Each structure stands twice: as C-alpha cells, then as structure tokens.
Amino acid sequence: MPLVGPPAHPFRSLDALRLLTVVQNDPIALPLARQLAWAAWAEGEKLAAASTLRAAADHVGFAGNTAEIIADPAIKLALRTNTDTALAAGVFGGPTFEFEAELFWGHDRMSHLAARIAGDLASPSNAATTMAAKPRGADRTQRPTPKSA
C-alpha cells in the first residue's frame, strides 16, 4: 500500500467505525475495513466524509444507506458496547487481534500473530502472563501546550 496518509492526523474515524459495526458479523467486514484503510492511508481521503464512506461501501458491494446507518441510535449503541468490551479485554489501540485470549497489537505484530496461529510461536509463558496482569506503575501526563507569543 502506498503511504499517502489522511489529510489530517489524528482524524475522526467514528462514522467509519459505525459503518463497520453494521457488518461486523458479515463476510464483507474485512473487505470494507481494508477499503476504508486504503481510502485513508493510500489515497489520502477523509474518513469522516460521506463520499469516502459511500465509495468504500460501493467498492465492496454494500448497498445500505450509509448516511442513515451512521446516524442510527442502535448502531451508535452497538459501537459503544463493542468499545467497552474491547477496553475491558485490554485493547488499547488498533489494529488489535485476539487469538486464544491473547492480544496482538499493531501491524508490526501481525507476523507474530501468524506464527502463533501456525503453531510456530509458543503461547505466553506464565511469567509473561503474570507480568501483564500487574497494575500500572506509571502513566504519561499530557504537557500543557505552550502559548505562542
């Protein structure tokens, strides 16, 4: 994928996430997610734009009314529920993949996930599981933005 990047970063992906929530249990989910990622990162499109969502939906053959879908209170609630579930499971960024209750975070860990699925990477040791379950000892704090002169 060529890396162009979205027109602004960070960017609003809420509408794209709502659209994906509609198809989360459908085989079209992965192709739609790929197309949305391609639109933002390879073509520099704005994911909050209705035209970008519609084009991605059309590309994968999704005929639903994207504008109505992203405004549907039931879809909004489903996305909130999915988000709460992910946070409770320890997800803190994307992409995150789960395999046998183990989380793999970041595109740079996809080779580890593939090796784990193939059986070429052992499951986490008890020491690693114990370490991951420890409480947080420190967090970053956000520095105030300096005022310009």
How many distinct domains?
A: 2
Would you identify the regions where 5 or more consecutive residues have pLDDT less than 50?
none
**Strand residues, percent:** 5-15%
Shape: globular
Helix content percent band = 40-55%
Alpha-beta content class = mainly alpha
End-to-end Cα distance, whole Å, is: 41 Å
What's the total number of strands? 2
Main sheet: strand order:
1-2
- Mean of all residue-level pLDDT scores: 88
Instruction: From the alpha carbons, calculate the radius of gyration and give it in angstroms.
Output: 18 Å
Q: What kind of sheet is the major sheet?
A: 2 strands, antiparallel
The SSE string, one letter per element, is: HHHHHEEHH
What is the number of helices?
7
Short structural description:
The protein has 149 residues and is mainly alpha-helical. The protein has helices at 14-22, 29-42, 50-59, 66-71, 73-89, 110-118, 126-132; strands at residues 96-99, 102-105.
Strand and helix layout:
Elements: H1 14-22, H2 29-42, H3 50-59, H4 66-71, H5 73-89, E1 96-99, E2 102-105, H6 110-118, H7 126-132
Antiparallel strand pairs: 1-2
Helix pairs in contact: 1-5, 2-3
Describe it.
The chain is mainly α. The chain has two domains: 10-89, no CATH class; 91-121, no CATH class. It is 48% helix and 5% strand. The chain has seven helices and two strands. The chain has helices at 14-22, 29-42, 50-59, 66-71, 73-89, 110-118, 126-132, and strands at residues 96-99, 102-105. Strands 1-2 form a two-stranded antiparallel sheet. Helix 1 (14-22) crosses helix 5 (73-89) and helix 2 (29-42) packs across helix 3. It is globular and about 45 Å long. It starts with 13 loop residues before the first helix and ends in a 17-residue tail after the last helix. The mean pLDDT is 88.
